[in-house]
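Supplementary Text 2. Reproducibility record for the structural model of the 345-residue chain.

All settings were left at their defaults, and a single model was retained for analysis rather than an ensemble. We include the record here because the model underlies the residue-level annotations in Supplementary Table 4.
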Amino acid sequence: MEHTQNAKVIVLIPAYKPDDRLIELTRELRGQGLEVMLVDDGGQQTYAPIFESCRALGAQVAVHAVNMGKGRALKTGINAAMLAWPDLTGIVTADADGQHTPADILRLIEAMGEHPDTLILGSREFTGGNVPFKSRWGNRITRFVYALASGVHVRDTQTGLRALPRCALEAMVRIDGERYEYEMNVLLKLRDMRIGVFEVPIETIYIDDNAGSHFNPVRDALRIYMVIFRYLFSSVTSFAVDYLLYWLCLGVFKFAPLLSYALARLVSSQVNYHLNKHTVFSGRGGKHSMVKYYALAVAQGALGAALVQVLPGILPISAAIIKIPVDLVLFALSYFIQRDYVFDK
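Retained model, structure tokens:
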């Protein structure tokens, strides 16, 4: 069945050292009446014949002289597609290694019409014996940490089959990331772009244990997780500053526990606010973020001080020691409130 929607949806495929599967995918997509934009990510003359065959089928090709990574190739392709088709309404990104079928690509295009201004993810189930161990567990760990960092729950954070709405394309060209971390950065920027996410189940295909993928499970996973752990760095740093000052005030200067707690919290809250606003949450939150932050800090400080005063009388533990579990719980609760309320546009 040919693609007959009025919407101008472009299929974008970044490719590094592809094989004949890219030609076949291009042929099938063109047979459906779809426009195709390919990005030759530095394959040079060895792979030029494959891209020439795709050009002959009607695809447009943007070329990198050297390999620059999947993130850069996607941004190059988005930019080129916006210039070539000014009236486009969205872009579907797909991989060149045979993991994404034309039927699933069409399924995402249909979902774009039902869920406009939304990022559509083609989500795999990761079940069955053909799914490589590293892919199954890598996705489980990544989606858990992503949900913790962002508050958004998705089944497949690593899928390359995505439908990008026209309203978000300019922002996506500016998102940081040159390699596989770019796709995680897009998910982490959903709130900044003010777009939702919708998942469409797709077929889970791995060919030769995913041998055609250029994803390095160690190097590129570290890039992805370093993006996520910036969300946790601020709380750890603030906790260290807070506890060190509390220990100095209580143990060295012999201040009262309540005064020690208040002084430590005053300094650490400034550290935490500026790290969260400018490093973790990319400056979002608006002019009222400091007011909301300190309203939270006062409530958190009052509760923490009360617990540090009361619990040593109930449990055989000193105030300096009981502060550790108290603050771990309060920092965790504070993180979720900051993520969803204080620094949320």
